[in-house]
Write a structure and sequence with these properties.
The structure is a homodimer of 217-residue chains. Chain A is mainly α and 217 residues long. Chain A is built from nine helices and no strands. At the A-B interface, helix 6, helix 7, helix 8 and helix 9 of A face helix 6, helix 7, helix 8 and helix 9 of B. The first copy, chain A, binds a DNA duplex (18 and 18 nucleotides) through helix 1 and helix 3.
Chain lengths: 217, 217
Amino acid sequence: MSAPHTGRRGSYAKGLAKREEILTRALDVISHEGYAGASVKAIAEAVGLSQAGLLHYFDSKEELFTEVLRKRDEVDALSRASGPDEPSLGRMRAEFIALVRHNTDVPGLVQLFSRLAADATDPAHPAHEFFLDRSARLREVLGAAVARAQGDGRLRDGIEPATLARMVQALADGMQLQWLVDPTVDMIGPVEALFALLEPPPPGEPDADQRSGATEA
Amino acid sequence: MSAPHTGRRGSYAKGLAKREEILTRALDVISHEGYAGASVKAIAEAVGLSQAGLLHYFDSKEELFTEVLRKRDEVDALSRASGPDEPSLGRMRAEFIALVRHNTDVPGLVQLFSRLAADATDPAHPAHEFFLDRSARLREVLGAAVARAQGDGRLRDGIEPATLARMVQALADGMQLQWLVDPTVDMIGPVEALFALLEPPPPGEPDADQRSGATEA
DNA sequence: GTCTATACTCGGATAGAC
DNA sequence: GTCTATCCGAGTATAGAC
């Protein structure tokens, strides 16, 4: 109970630095070599420590993995403060898609995320707050951009921004699952399709005629 | 290796019957009393057996839980053959929504599903095939209904039926996660919103005017 | 302050008695 | 067919070497 653990305390920088080093390394390993129900021991070895040695820096397996995900967000700068405070929907859309595309390269991380997200569903789970906060933040940014776009008429009207934000998030999470089960599926198409669906109808031309040949019924 | 296990073999009906009884009971318990990282032992007790006694009927914990989910599908008749072979999209939509609504009453099952789905993402997981099949089946039915509806002009055009099917499924799965994390969220709204988005634009009247007051930017 | 060794606990799996 | 007993592996806690 006196160790650097949470990073909140003590630790004359060495501890913190080491912790960061571990996280970076773990992130790297999981990203590239995958996460197959990775045990603490497996990560410890990949990082060059014993199991107990690794756990010296983290309270538990759950905390470790949560911090790995937090580190990932940091790196990906999902909650990136870069650019304007209130990015346009177009920009959000582009960034969101880019992120989904990027995830394609790090299946291990995506799996870790999905697994932990499902487990952290339980309010007693140490990562519960993390996911609660993280997803609320995402929806906030998304929702705000949507509201502004609706105000400008750049976005189909009649759906609550908050609902829309949930939809985008849910769709992306769901597509991750589908992609993990079968890596040949395209995570991006459906996400882009949703955004496309949201574009306002061109205000004058009914678009009920560009019928594709996709229907064979 | 000689037990009734998979139901494929042996089992002078007693074994099978008992197995079904166990599944029904387990389904009931998980549905109503929830699934909090339920152990085999917990289920065994709920069913009135010892841990080993329960495992006599199933190869492993994973197999047990997979079968519980299979039983659930059976009961919910998700892949219900009732009614016409090729239900209309409207009917599919109504049934789908009803199912989502029903899930609201069985959080334990939803959690079990979400957890196992994430775990079964790994090709080596015993439930991998189950989820692969199950979700392919759902998308098939959904996709077919979509294709027919598009053919009739009852559905917005320009999206592949297969893509649309994935979207609906992903959205629903993602909303389950959001609802599990925070049971006050509405799983249904976003799903209905997606279906609404798919309705074809009224062919003549541009609908860019029913602006709501939801935007404060 | 950092880490290894070790020991404890718990859940799932398996063998064998009844 | 069901139990008891046992095993095993993973996660966790602690003592103490360095």
